[in-house]
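user: can you give me the structure for this one chain? tokens are fine.
assistant: on it. calling the predictor now.
[tool input]
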Amino acid sequence: MKFLLLASFVLLVSLPGQAQKFGYLNSSLIMSEVPEIKAAESNLKAYQEQLSKQGQQKVEALQAKYQELARKEKQGEIAPKALQEQADKLKIEEDDLAKLEQEMQNQLAQKREGLLQPILDKINKAIQDVAKENAFAYIFDTSAGMLLYADESSDVSQLVRTKLGLPAVSTTANAPKKQ
């Protein structure tokens, strides 16, 4: 029994000596420096402009149809029943256009995810590698604004930049902002 108490005491006393190592980085800053992110954003912007052009053409065509119908009504070239039928058809086209807009937004989101996910995976792997190689138990992200204080010696941003092949920058740019 005394041995068990002594062993427990030794174990409890030795635990504080095994302090866990913490680090932090600013993922937003690192992401802004990754060339693949810039290329993906450029690609996304071009894709968005292409989708926007397609949508704009359809909007303009629908507006022209509404204007033509209004002109016919004003000049008395269309019977009330035919006017209602044409207006109903245009309403259906308008609803289809709204669905198309939502579909285009979904396509853009899928394209964004498809382009960015491999890059984010690469960055995450670099962070994990740095954590394992340098025995960090936890790495916090200062870009989320949740880290109120951290010693600059805990900043792992340079290590992650090196893993990603990015140039080194001043460490003060990554430090948590004092509130």
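assistant: here you go. Residues 19-173 form one domain. The chain has one domain: 19-173.
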